[in-house]
Amino acid sequence: MLRWQIAIQEYRGNMTIVQKAGNIHRNSDGPSRWALANIPDNPAYVPLEAEPQIPIEGINITDIGTEFLEEVRESYKKYKN
Questions:
Q1: Distance between CA 44 and CA 1 in Å, rounded?
Q2: Tens-binned pLDDT, residue by residue, of the chain (81 aa)
Q3: pTM for this one?
Q4: Exposure of 42 by Cβ count < 10 A (0-12 exposed, 13-18 middle, 19+ buried)?
Q5: How far apart are the C-alpha atoms of 38 and 34, rounded to whole Å?
């Protein structure tokens, strides 16, 4: 809708727009209803922003010993539920 508002601004005051019901207006042009690509030439162009920058607030590194991992493995074998 925005692209049509921009396109017809120069004719403001010199024309009248009349809506016709869909069953009466059977000669509508399909291309005018196609969406335009979001490129800078499009009057309704909205620039896509880059991925938002998320600051890293902190880093936590944990090293789990092999003994603990072995206990977990044995526990899974013992209690298969």
A1: 9
A2: 677 788 888 888 887 877 777 676 666 666 666 777 888 888 788 888 767 778 888 888 888 888 998 998 999 988 876
A3: 0.26
A4: middle
A5: 12
